[in-house]
Amino acid sequence: MSRPTTPPGPTRPDSLGAPDMTDDASVAAFARTLDEAARSSATTGLLTADVPDLTLDAAYRVQRAGIARRLARGETVIGAKMGFTSRAKMAQMGIDDVIWGLLTDAMQVEDGATLDTSALIHPRIEPEIAFLIGEPLSGRVSPAAAVRAVAGIAVAYEVIDSRYADFRFTLPDVVADNASACAFGIGPWHAPDRVAGENLGMVMEVDGRTVATGSSAAILGNPVRSLAAAARLAEGAGSPLRPGDIVLAGAATAAVPLTPGAHVRVVAAELGRVEVTTR
């Protein structure tokens, strides 16, 4: 993926006092607000409260500027996460397409490791399917063509954590907030030609108690459709998926609140398990 440059300095309001989202400085100011909220474990107001007509294009510019701040601190982009891959969630949000955010190496938690939740705002965890990219992938491709670029498939989890109060936001707000990306973990990789990933039973347990069950079919009917969508969005962003990148295809169930002192295990048929303990 391309590495965005460090965004410019403070915002410059337009003549009416509202930020001008065609101005790089205003984009950078919003990115700074979201980034500082995450780093200080504090919620912030909706961007659309200041810019009611915030467009998706402008929201993605804020997202990239926020990632640029992380890169400036030494992080590296290692893939992408897909959002709103549930038809029910799309209907709830009044949209007909998925969104994406970027993953950095600082977000990845080793399988079985401990995640410190003390710096998070209101984290939630959800079971996912992950793909490991084996060949460059971008553009409008069929799911079959997308899967040919895959080197591995794995069970995964994602921890999401909105910077907005009560996890409430509009579509542009969540896009600007890097699609609520926070942390993720991945189980063992499997050869994609040995696993039919379109309808894998999935279970998420917290402290040995089942809290969510579902199927990978909840991810756009087949998670490889989400992968194909990632390729399309990658082209639009000028950031082709590269060998070694990880794509989180989306959640197989609703997210569950994540509390300190919990042990979470996600199991997927044919793919094994991935685990994390919180503190």
Quick tags:
alpha+beta, 7 helices, hydrolase activity, hydrolase, five-stranded mixed sheet, single chain, seven-stranded mixed sheet, Fumarylacetoacetate hydrolase, domain 2, disordered N terminus, 26% helix, Hydratase-Decarb/MhpD_sf
* Number of individual domains: 1
Average pLDDT, rounded to a whole number, is 90
Please provide the count of β strands: 12
- For this structure, what is the CATH class? Alpha Beta
> How much helicity do the residues have?
25-40%
Which overall shape is indicated by the principal axes computed on the Cα atoms?
A: globular
Overall structural class, as computed from helix and strand content, comes to alpha+beta
CATH architecture classification: Alpha-Beta Complex
> What is the CATH third-level topology name?
Fumarylacetoacetate hydrolase, domain 2
Cα-based radius of gyration, to the nearest Å = 18 Å
Order of helices and strands: HHHEHEEEHEHEEEHEEEE
Task: Sketch the major β-sheet.
Answer: 7 strands, mixed
The CA-CA distance between the termini, in Å, is 32 Å
Proportion of residues in extended strands = 25-35%
Residue runs with pLDDT of under 50 for 5 or more positions: 1-17
Query: What's the total helix number?
Result: 7
Organism: Yinghuangia aomiensis
Keywords: Hydrolase, Lyase
Pfam family, one: FAA_hydrolase
Protein name: Fumarylacetoacetate hydrolase family protein
Can you give a write-up of this model?
- This protein is an alpha+beta fold and 279 residues long.
- Helix content is 26%, strand content 27%.
- It is built from 7 helices and 12 strands.
- Strands 1, 2, 4, 5, 6, 9 and 10 form a 7-stranded mixed beta sheet that branches. A 5-stranded mixed beta sheet has the order 3-12-11-7-8, with no helix packed on it.
- The longest helix is centred in the N-terminal third of the chain and has 17 residues.
- It is globular and about 50 Å long.
